[in-house]
Amino acid sequence: MWRRQDYEPLMPLADALEALGSDGDMGSYGDEVALDTIVGSAARASDFDAAFRARRSMPRLADVRRKFDEGTFPPPLDLVRLGELHFVVDGHHRVAIARDRGWATLPARIRRICTVAFARCCLRVADLPAVTAERRFLEELPLPGDLRKSLRLDRPADWARLRDAALAWGYKRERIDETVFCCAHDLAAAWWADEVQPVARALREHQGGAAGEGDPSYLSDLQLFVVALAQRDGLGRLDWDNPANNEPDCCRPH
């Protein structure tokens, strides 16, 4: 029996879609789905916790449990897939009993929806405010799709800081270098290649220096850039000391 202090809510599909941003319906298919990827519900998020334990008495659970005990294999679930996550449309009780019995997978009919921000397997309800900020960032600065799986910041304010920094970088390139960006996708890709990656590379090459929050050996390029950006802003500077190679202050000998 779960204790109230251990309770983690099941993620509502509508809340996840609002945070991540719907980017097109990719159709449906059948597959065997790992139960630990099922993290939410289309309409019954209040009836189960995140581990699919019932939050109230449900006669239907007893009926489904009996069928499992009789050896009746359950029919496919109806699920919606966002990134690496699945949400139940129909089959909540089957998921609850299967997880209670230690099953690893169940068959399912899956409708896949693409999202603006990538739905990582570790996403939880508490992460949705940060994901909302990430989605807003990507709507203005649409980084290439292959990068989006690696993007993660825990604080919404960091996404706002990045947005301002990226747009300021683009403005300066247009004014100083007379660079022409044909669209937001072009600006985002150039900012990543010419600003974010050089700063992250410099931090990794100088691991003996003070890298700020975290170890450069395991932080992502984006996380390293945010660390360097916060340090630069804290010094009241609007650009790196050496714009030629974007070397951050924390990499410089003192």
Topology of helices and strands:
Layout: E1 11-12, H1 13-20, E2 22-34, E3 38-41, H2 59-69, E4 77-82, E5 85-90, H3 92-100, E6 105-115, H4 128-140, H5 145-148, H6 156-176, H7 184-205, H8 221-234
Parallel strand pairs: 1-3, 3-5, 4-6
Antiparallel strand pairs: 2-6, 4-5
What distinguishing features does this structure have?
6 strands, six-stranded mixed beta sheet, Conserved hypothetical protein from pyrococcus furiosus pfu- 392566-001, ParB domain, alpha/beta, 40% helix, disordered N terminus, 254 residues
Strands of the largest sheet, in order across it? 1-3-5-4-6-2
Radius of gyration: 23 Å
**Number of beta-strand segments:** 6
Give the termini distance in whole angstroms.
57 Å
Under CATH, the topology of the largest domain can be stated as Conserved hypothetical protein from pyrococcus furiosus pfu- 392566-001, ParB domain
Low-confidence stretches: 1-5, 209-213
Q: How many discrete structural domains? A: 2
- Share of helix among residues? 40-55%
| Assigned CATH superfamily of the largest domain | Conserved hypothetical protein from pyrococcus furiosus pfu- 392566-001, ParB domain
Describe this structure in words.
By secondary structure, the chain is α/β, with parallel strands linked by helices. The protein folds into two domains: 4-119, Conserved hypothetical protein from pyrococcus furiosus pfu- 392566-001, ParB domain; 141-251, no CATH class. It is built from eight helices and six strands. The protein has helices at 13-20, 59-69, 92-100, 128-140, 145-148, 156-176, 184-205, 221-234; strands spanning 11-12, 22-34, 38-41, 77-82, 85-90, 105-115. Strands 1-3-5-4-6-2 form a six-stranded mixed sheet, sandwiched between helices. Helix 4 (128-140) runs parallel beside helix 6 (156-176) and helix 7 (184-205) crosses helix 8. The longest helix has 22 residues, at 184-205. The chain is elongated and about 75 Å long. The model is unreliable at 1-5 and 209-213 (pLDDT under 50).
